[in-house]
Amino acid sequence: MAPSTSRLKILMCTSEAVPYAKTGGLADAVSALALALAKLGHEVRIIMPRYYGVNREKLEKLEGALGVPMGGGEQWSAVYAAKMPAKSGASRGNPVQVYFIDHEGFFGRDGIYGNAFEPDFLDNSRRFAFFCRSCFQLCRKIDWYPDVMHAHDWPAALVPVFLKYGERRGISSETGSFADTVSILTIHNLGYQGIYGKDNFSFTSLGWDVFYQAGLDDWNMMNLLKGGINCAGKINTVSPNYARETLSPGHGFRLDGALRYRGSDYSGILNGIDTATWNPRRDPYLPAPYAADDMAGKAKAKEALQRKFGLREDPEVPVIGMICRLTEQKGIGELFGPAYGSAWSICRDMNLQFAFLGSGETWAEHEIRSLSSRLPNFKAHIGYSEELSHLIEGGADFFLMPSRYEPCGLNQMYSLAYGTLPIVRNTGGLADTVQNYNQDTGEGTGFLFDDLSPGSIYNTVGWAVWAWYNRKSDIEAMRIRGMKKNFSWHKSALEYQSLYKSALNP
Ligand code: ADP
Ligand code: GLC
Asked: How many A from CA of 144 to the centre of ligand 1?
């Protein structure tokens, strides 16, 4: 019997969630969505691994151990729990309970997916297969069976596979089992699929017939995301435009066929932003609050940013901000590639300043350090910093995101909320959230370009800088327009709620 959909029991299965573990937007998205769904009245819980970075002293230990049948034996772990902190300023919904699977062998090390020496841990398929199976065992342990198991990205993609081929089959609903549970798979990034040697599959303890029926086979390798796509009740990605793009080979990362096959079960739901954390009216990292009707605080943020980054303190010169993981996805080859990228010529030719924050590929870190030492108007912090990311969003005039592809992108939405005009490539969620400047009418909220090349980035930054010096009133109007946009998670949470309902009542 389908459950009442007014109050659903939802289990978010994820490898990242703020404030506990984060490498990118996945962590922001999962936690904010969980809180927004809880506010709609649902009972939302999150399950994730307990990495070394998560301090056990701040968590509550559940009694007894968790046994997870894997690899023909049993893996044992401890379980910890905590209540997800609800931000001040956000009106509270039901509390969101977070469970942490604490397995020393799999998660007792530095790094979430890898470290500097081993970027993708050799045992990742086992680590996350174990995690996916433990989601079910945890429910048994706490005697709480969700209506919806919502898996995020490849690390949780075996959840739909286990549900379809192990946990759900042949079990009657009377037994308080997973018989009525449905699974949802959200793809935050199709570029990461979890492809490993298929010999690792035996560790799941599923039969080899499942390997083929679930479509895990990928040219004689095991593709975890592909299995999730084939088995989930519904699949979605994080913007409507990226959903369309991924149905074609150009953006489908070889899974466009699998996605087309799921056809009407696949859709795009735009992420929101956590407006309690990303709000210039009450951002503790900014020197002064500001809002669309009182922008004085933004000038103070710009001054603070220039000072912090060692740039000349000058309100007249436009500051371009950028925050990103240094990976190919973000267009870093075209921007920072040695003797090719456009950052050098942009800073040499134009009267602007550039403030960069990020880390990632070593060659790019070297190039960025080198630019920093050679150019007085280019300054960078290599590393991760919440504080600086808020200061850049608040203090910069423009925000650059020349992404090769972008499933949704959060920073351009943070930028709009902070009156910082995005300069973005016309792709994925960037195209769904930024409207191009029309210099005849003054309309728009940012600057877009189609072609990913050093020349296009150069020209579009040049266009934005031209508007800064020559169309001041358009710039001011665009800022206000962007700040008035509503990117709250409430709207996205309503769409997820409909998705859950359609999976529960097909
Ligand atoms: P992705 O998830 O592909 O990295 P998003 O734009 O969705 O891209 O989200 C990136 C998130 O990570 C944003 O919240 C951004 O501010 C944050 N972030 C990325 N790099 C850094 C960094 N070096 N310091 C602080 N925050 C960062
Ligand atoms: C991924 C994507 C990014 C998206 C984020 C949250 O990391 O690269 O575009 O915003 O997930 O969904």
From this structure: 33
Find out whether 474 and 439 touch, Cβ atoms under 8 Å: yes
User: Which structural domain, as residue segments, surrounds residue 455?
Assistant: 296-483
- Nearest-atom number in ligand 2 for the CA of 407 is 9
Instruction: Note whether residue 253 is domain-resident.
Output: yes
Q: Is residue 495 part of a domain?
A: no
Residue 324 Cα to ligand 1 midpoint, Å, equals 5
CA 294 from chain centre, in angstroms, equals 31
DSSP E strands in 9-86: the ranges are 9-13, 43-49, 60-61, 66-70, 73-83
Could you tell me the pTM of the whole model? Answer: 0.95
Residue 219 sits in the same domain as residue 358? no
269 C-alpha to ligand 2 centroid (Å)? 12
Pocket of ligand 2 (CB under 6 A): 24-26, 29, 188-189, 238, 271, 406-410, 429
pLDDT in tens, 326-354: 999 999 999 999 888 899 999 999 999 99
318: CB partners within 8 A, 6+ apart: 352, 353, 397, 398, 464, 465, 468, 469
Q: Which ligand is nearest to the CA of 24?
A: 1
Total domains present in the chain: 2
Instruction: Flag whether 397 is in a domain.
Output: yes
Q: Are residues 174 and 38 in the same domain?
A: yes
Cβ contacts of 174 within 8 Å, gap of 6 or more? none
